[in-house]
Design brief:
The strands form six sheets. The protein has a six-stranded parallel beta sheet with strand order 1-6-7-8-9-10, with no helix packed on it. Strands 11-12-13-18 form a four-stranded antiparallel beta sheet, with helices on one face. Strands 2-5 form a two-stranded antiparallel sheet. The model is unreliable at 374-382 (pLDDT under 50). It is an alpha/beta fold and 382 residues long. Helices cover 17% and strands 21% of the residues. Helix 2 packs across helix 3 (110-117), helix 4 packs across helix 5 and helix 5 (214-226) runs parallel beside helix 6.
Length: 382
C-alpha cells in the first residue's frame, strides 16, 4: 500500500491582526493594525469593514461584518480584496499546495468565498483545489453549514458530540448522524472526533473525546473511519497543560523533532494518535470500502459490528472481549485482521458467516477487507 502525500494549508483570510497590534510580521513586513496599515499586501483602511464589535451570534450581518475578538475584519466583498486573497492562494497552489482549510469561514459571506475560489488556478496535478471550511454550527443560530456546501466540505462539529455519546452508550451509535439536528449531508461533511480547538475547550468544545482518554478515543476514531458518513480527518496531537501551550520546543523556542520509539509510538511530548494501530490501520479500511454503505448491522450491549457493502467488515467492543458468529456480507475466504497487522485471520464461510473474536483491552477492534489476506503488509504509519 502506498501513501500519497498532499499539503493542505490552514488559511486565515477573514481578518488581519487584532486592534492594538503593531510590529513586524513573520514575512518581514511592518504593520500597524490601529491605522489599518499592512503594506506587505498592501491593505489600507479602505479594505476593511467599518469597526463594530461582534456580540450577537443571532445576527448573521454582525457575525460576518463585525470584528471577531477585535481582529481587523477584511471586506471580501471588494474586488481588490478578493484578488489579493486569490493571489495569495494561487502562489501556494503553484508551489504544490493541494487545498485549504478556511479558518473562520462562518465569519465570511458564502458569496465572497465563492468569488475568491472562482479566481483560483487548478492544482498542478489537475483538478480544482480541495476546500474545507470552518463553520461551527450546533443549531440555535441563523448561520448553517448548508450555506457553505456549494464551496466544498464544511466542518461538522456536532458529529464530535454524537460520537462521544455513542461510545458511552453503544445503543446510540446507530444515530450518530442526526439530520434532524441539521447535520451536514454526508457528501460535504468534514468529520473528526476532536480537533485542535475543541480538544482545548474552544470552538464548540465540551462533550468530546480526546487522546487523554485513549481507550474510548480509539473506539470513537475507529468507528468514525468505519462509518459511512462524511470525509474523515484523523487528529495528531502533542501533550499540553494549558489551552495556549505550544508544541514541544527547544530552548530557542524551535519546535522539537518527533522521535519514533521502538514500538512505533512517538516521544518527547508528541502523542501521534495517527500512529496507533487501531487508528492507522483503519485508514486502510476506510480507503478500501469507499462507495459502500453499512449493512448487516449488529449491536448488543457494548458490542457492535457491520459490513461495508461486500468490501469490508468491522467490529468493536467496549469491554475488550467479543465472541460471536455474525453475517459479514463478504465472499467466502480467509481474511486478514488489519488491526493486528494481519497476525489474526478470519474465515468467512460460503454463507458469509464468520466467527468474530476480539480479545484485547488495548485495541478492542477488528476489521478486514476484501482482497487483503494474511500476507498483506500494512504500510500506513508515517
Amino acid at each position: 500500500m502506498f501513501c500519497i502525500h498532499r499539503i493542505y494549508v490552514d488559511v486565515v483570510i477573514n481578518h488581519m491582526a487584532g486592534l492594538g497590534r503593531s510590529g513586524t510580521g513573520s514575512g518581514g513586513s511592518n504593520f500597524n493594525s490601529d491605522n489599518y496599515e499592512f503594506p506587505g499586501v498592501p491593505y489600507s483602511q479602505a479594505d476593511f469593514n467599518p469597526y463594530c464589535s461582534l456580540n450577537n451570534y443571532g445576527d448573521p450581518d454582525e457575525v460576518r461584518n463585525c470584528y471577531l475578538v477585535d481582529l481587523t475584519d477584511l471586506n471580501q466583498g471588494k474586488d481588490y480584496v478578493r484578488e489579493k486573497i486569490a493571489g495569495f492562494l494561487n502562489k501556494m497552489i503553484d508551489i504544490g499546495v493541494a487545498g485549504f482549510r478556511v479558518d473562520a469561514a462562518k465569519h465570511m459571506w458564502p458569496a465572497d468565498i465563492e468569488a475568491i475560489e472562482s479566481r483560483l488556478n487548478d492544482v498542478p496535478s489537475g483538478g480544482r483545489p480541495y476546500f474545507y471550511q470552518e463553520v461551527i454550527d450546533q443549531g440555535g443560530e441563523p448561520i448553517h453549514t448548508s450555506e457553505y456546501t456549494p464551496m466544498g466540505y464544511v466542518t461538522e462539529f456536532r458529529y464530535c458530540i454524537k460520537l462521544n455519546e455513542g461510545i458511552q452508550d453503544f445503543g446510540r451509535l446507530g444515530q450518530v448522524v442526526d439530520y434532524d439536528w441539521g447535520m451536514t449531508d454526508s457528501d460535504h461533511a468534514f468529520v473528526f472526533v476532536d480537533n485542535h480547538d475543541n480538544q482545548r475547550g474552544h470552538g464548540g468544545g465540551g462533550n468530546i473525546l480526546t487522546h487523554e482518554n485513549p481507550h474510548d478515543y480509539k473506539l470513537a476514531v475507529a468507528f468514525m473511519l468505519a462509518n459511512d458518513y462524511g470525509f474523515a480527518r484523523v487528529m495528531s496531537s502533542y501533550s499540553f497543560g494549558s489551552s495556549d501551550e505550544g508544541p514541544p520546543h527547544n530552548g530557542d523556542d524551535s519546535t522539537k523533532d518527533v522521535p519514533i520509539n521502538s514500538d512505533g509510538s512517538c516521544g518527547d511530548g508528541w502523542v501521534c494518535e495517527h500512529r496507533w494501530s487501531s487508528i492507522a490501520n483503519m485508514v486502510a479500511f476506510r480507503n478500501a470500502v469507499v462507495g459502500t454503505s453499512k449493512e448487516n448491522y449488529y449491536q448488543e450491549g457494548e458490542e457492535i459490528a457491520f459490513s461495508r457493502g461486500n468490501k469490508g467488515f468491522f467490529a468493536m467492543t467496549k469491554s475488550g472481549h467479543m465472541d460471536k458468529t455474525l453475517q459479514t456480507g463478504l465472499p467466502a475466504g480467509e481474511y486478514c485482521d488489519l488491526i493486528t497487522d494481519c497476525a489474526k485471520t478470519i474465515t468467512v464461510d460460503g454463507n458469509g458467516m464468520a466467527h468474530i473474536v476480539i480479545d484485547s483491552d488495548d485495541n478492542p477492534i477488528l476489521a478486514f477487507i476484501v482482497g487483503k489476506i494474511a500476507d498483506f503488509e500494512l504500510k500506513v504509519r508515517h
